[in-house]
Structure formats: C-alpha cells, structure tokens
Amino acid sequence: MHCLEVETGTQYTNTLSGYPVANRKRSWENFRLFSRELNSSEMPFAPIASDSISLMISVEDTGAGIPFDAQSRVFTPFMQVGPSIARIHGGTGIGLSISKCLVGLMKGEIGFSSKPQVGSTFTFTAVLTRVHSSRNENKSSEFKEINALVVDHRPVRAKVTKYHLQRLGVQTELTTDLDQYISKNNCGSQIAKLVLIDKETWLKESHSMPLLVTKLRNKDQPDSTKLFLLENPKSSVKSNSHIFREYNLNVIMKPLRASMLQVSLQRALGGIDKLHCRNGVVGNSTLGSLLHKKRIIVVDDNIVNLKVAAGALKKYGAEVTCADSGKEAITLLKPPHNFDACFMDIQMPEMDGFEATKRIRVMERDLNEQIERGEAPPECVGVRQWRTPILAMTADVIQATHEQCLKSEMDGYVSKPFEGEQLYREVARFFLNQDQVQ
C-alpha cells in the first residue's frame, strides 16, 4: 500500500489533523486501510471466517513531543520526561504503563513515534470479537437520495469528512478549489443539497464565499442548499457569530461523530421535529418548543465535552451557561437563580459532580426552610419549593453509577459521549415530567 505523497515545501500536510505529525506516512496509510471497509466486506487484519478481528488505533498529538533521550522510558511506571512535565501537565507517570498492561490483556501491542516540537503518534492493536452491525451502523435511508459537497483544502481531512457522510448514506463529492466549483456551478451542474466547508478553508477562501452563497441561494428553490461550517472546538464561535447569521450557517463541531452528524443533518433538513421521546412521552410537542428559552447550565472540566453539550442544547433554542468546575457550578446555582436545569459531569478534579450536587441541595434546603417560615427573598415569591433539576453526564452507565447519582440527589443521567438524539430526548422527557419548575 502506498501513502499519498506530498510535495516538499507545499502548504498542505497529508495527516488526519491537517498539521505536521511524528509519523505522517502511517497517519494517512492507516486511514486509507480503515476507510476501505466502506465498500468492502473483507477485513484487512483477520480472515472473514474468523470470530476475531485485529483492531489498530493511532492517536496523533501535535503537541510538544517527547525528547529522544527520554523515549526509552515512557512505559516505565512513575517515570516522567522531566520535572517541568509533571509540573505543567500533572499526572504521576503511570498512564502509559497501565495502557501497556491493558493492551497486553487484549492480546495487542503498543508503540509510538515522537519528534520534539512536532508531536507524538501512539499506536496500539487489540484482538476483539467480531459482532454483527448494530442498527445505528446501518446507512440511514433518509439520506440515501441526498448529495453533499465537502470543501476543504486539506485532502486527507476532506476524506475523513466524506467517510462519515458515506456512513450515513450521503453521496459525497470533494473539492479543494472553491473557485473551480463555482465555475462548474455556472455551467449548470447539479447543486449539492448539503455543502460542508471546513472553517480553515472558509477563512482562507473568504473572498469567494459571498459568491458561493449567492450562487447557491439564487436558485429556483433559494433555501434548498444547506450550508455547514466544520468548526474546531478551540476556535471562537462567538467571535464569528455575525458570519453564521449573515450566511445562515449550521455549525458542526469536530471531531465528527456519526450520531452528532446525523442529528445536525436532520435538523437542517427539517426532519428532527418528527422525533419524539421514548415511550411516547413527548407526544406532539417538538423538542424545539420544549427547550426554547430554557436556561441551562452545563458543567464539565473537559472543554471539548463542554462545547459539544452546550452546542447540542443551543441548537434547540436553550440559553446555555458553561462552567468548568464543581465549585463554579455551586456559585452559579446558589439560590435564588434563573437557571431551569443543570447538566453535571460527575468526574471532575477538586470536586466531582456528586459532591457539587450534594452541596447545591444543602443550599436549596436552607432556602426552602426560609420559604416555609415566610422569610424568603423577593425572588422566591410564588415558589413553594426550590429545586434545580440536575442531570449527570457520565461515560459510566452501570447500575452502581446510576444508584450513586440518585443517592447524591441527582434527577437522572445521560451517557457520555452521548448520542445527540438520546440527549435531546432525555432533556425533553425530563422537562415534561418534572413536577414543578421554580
């Protein structure tokens, strides 16, 4: 297998991240091998008749990298590259040694390639049991007649986007040259129903964007083409909000996940309002009407998880406030306040979600005692009992965790990383079934 070569000195870097990495050839080569599975029933690592499959995962980090003289000891327990690493990044130096043990239990191997000031690429293999495709892995029939255009000047990154769209059944075309696409459009070519533009390319080709939008929106059906901006979580969404409003852009946060991409497309195409909560709870109410103007606080120490959760709620009209610690959540939720609900991560440093919730409930009980005595502040006039709905966000959905959520006086939980549809449904179910909103 050959990797896609890059000319020396070119501005394009053929890696999944779009930036220089420690093992560029392996980056593209592995993805090509993986993406072949879209149209092939053959597994690249194991015979088709086997019940086992060998999985290979590579993680590219474009950070500081590991000094060459320290690379021989990175898997040694309690060893750090240097005191500055421990001071800046924290940790005890056992993460990679634990990872090596876990990989060994899965009959695999782990290794890495690293260059100082470029980054590190860690790769591991694991032997797993083959399973049949689940319902969610099947191509969605609702998208099979839809065609899309991905605009990205980095070819490998564009292919990753195409891969996710194809998983949903969307017919996808790629272009790295926006001017060429506009010229092609002038010749009467079929207009894509969906146009997904990477933000880096949008900024790079900003001079062509007004013309592109004009071409797309001046057709017989002016709003038939939906525009999406693929946004990096580190970028500032607020600083570009005027662009989103001006061009009516739908924003999708990266890294892409099939579930979130599916929900974003459904929303833009008008199909999401057909969704109803499980067990028929929502009935004829749309999710947008349930969440519109709801004031929700999202608490998570992970900036990516924080933005994904906030973005998911905002898409349905919720007014979201973000907090990155349990202590900040306590400050914001000290009653009386104006929030309708809270999504709380349960695993955070210094103070986890369980402890934060317990302290919030103590403050609420104190206020409720004041309400009973008729000593409550003016903001509580008409309130019989103050209780802020708190839902846990957790990657651990075992029964013990559920019981601990209830023991901490949380009102429920959603899984993390969450499925977009599942998150929306849980919120809608909760708002409809809550006994009283303060």
From TrEMBL:
Assembly behavior: Homodimer.
Record-linked CDD domains: REC_hyHK_CKI1_RcsC-like (cd17546)
Entry's transmembrane regions: none
InterPro entries: 2C_system_His_kinase, CheY-like_superfamily, HATPase_C_sf, HATPase_dom, His_kinase_dom, Receiver_AHK4/CRE1_1st, Sig_transdc_His_kin-like_C, Sig_transdc_resp-reg_receiver
PANTHER family (alphabetical): HISTIDINE KINASE 3 (PTHR43719:SF73), TWO-COMPONENT HISTIDINE KINASE (PTHR43719)
Upper lineage: Eukaryota, Viridiplantae, Streptophyta, Embryophyta, Tracheophyta
Gene3D superfamilies per record: 3.40.50.2300, Histidine kinase-like ATPase, C-terminal domain (3.30.565.10)
Residue list for modification 4-aspartylphosphate: 345
Protein name as catalogued: histidine kinase
Domain Histidine kinase: 55-130
Domain Response regulatory: start-end pairs: 295-431
One function term, GO molecular function aspect: protein histidine kinase activity
Record key words, sorted: Cytokinin signaling pathway, Phosphoprotein, Two-component regulatory system
Catalytic activity: ATP + protein L-histidine = ADP + protein N-phospho-L-histidine
Listed EC numbers: 2.7.13.3
Alphabetized SMART domains for the sequence: HATPase_c (SM00387), REC (SM00448)
